[in-house]
Write a structure and sequence with these properties.
Blueprint: H1 5-22, E1 27-35, H2 40-57, E2 61-68, E3 76-83, H3 86-97, H4 100-109, E4 116-126, E5 144-152, H5 157-174, E6 178-185, E7 195-201, H6 204-215, H7 218-227, E8 234-244
Antiparallel strand pairs: 1-3, 1-4, 2-3, 2-8, 4-6, 5-7, 5-8, 6-7
Helix pairs in contact: 2-4, 5-7
Length: 251
């Protein structure tokens, strides 16, 4: 049975629309707040009681909120927001900053002193080859999360994506690590992205056991060797263990 050119074109259009619907096109923002000593609890209370609601009022999606387990990061709060686009993000923050409700909350919460010393921000797009949909799982609120960032050597970002797509994620799962989400950073001047992802562990002991088993897995060793035949891929890895806050969607 022959298919006409018109039918083929229609099929391609339908397939493209279907793919677009399934692909997450949001802009995500990882924000890290470094608090002044002793002011973290005030920041948490402000987010829980006020800020998250004001974010939502201005079309900012609360994705997740975490505290690092590292004692050296005891004054830090990590969170992720999502927006329909970068333009929408900028408009939302502009509206948030001028919102009388927010100004009142900020002023009252800082009666005992400034809360936030500095802010780090990373813009990201969901990596479509690695994540189709963000998992807002709340099956186990006691889980330990791990935020990992892979900085690749020049021109090697597609290689790390391919390795995770074809091997790493499945191996993580086989060793008890849950794949939550994978993003590619949005860099200025079209500079190379770095891979940012979140996985979940049962607890700290489970994380160590899973990573030990993963690194000793012959399948991983073979996949790593094959993927680096044309050269090393990753230059640097940054890992942070995180515990979810009670109001985090992801926990």
């Amino acid at each position: 049975m022959k298919i006409s050119i018109l039918s083929l074109l229609l099929l391609m259009i339908v397939s493209s629309i279907s793919f677009a619907k399934k692909t997450d096109t949001k802009v995500y923002e990882l924000r890290i707040y470094h608090c002044h000593p002793g002011r973290l609890n005030a920041l948490i209370a402000r987010f829980q009681n006020h800020t998250t609601g004001i974010f939502e009022k201005h079309n900012m999606e609360n994705v997740g909120y975490w505290l690092p387990t590292d004692p050296e990061k005891s004054n830090d709060l990590y969170y992720i927001l999502a927006y329909p686009s970068m333009e929408a993000r900028n408009e939302s923050w502009k509206a948030f900053g001028s919102d009388p409700e927010w100004k009142k909350v900020a002023s009252e919460s800082e009666a005992d002193g400034k809360i936030v010393a500095s802010v780090e921000s990373t813009f990201m797009k969901m990596e479509p080859e690695l994540t189709k949909k963000l998992k807002n799982s709340i099956a186990n609120p006691e889980r330990l999360f791990e935020l990992r960032s892979y900085y690749c050597l020049p021109g090697r970002y597609p290689n790390i994506v391919a390795r995770f797509r074809d091997h790493t994620r499945a191996l993580f799962k086989s060793h008890g690590m849950e794949n939550i989400a994978y993003w590619g950073s949005i860099e200025k001047d079209n500079a190379q992205s770095h891979l940012v992802y979140i996985i979940a562990h049962k607890d700290a002991e489970g994380a160590k056991a899973s990573w030990d088993a993963f690194r000793n897995d012959p399948k991983w060793k073979a996949a790593q060797k094959a993927s680096e035949e044309s050269g090393k891929i990753v230059e640097k890895v940054v890992s942070v263990m995180l515990k979810p806050l009670p109001f985090s969607k992801i926990k």
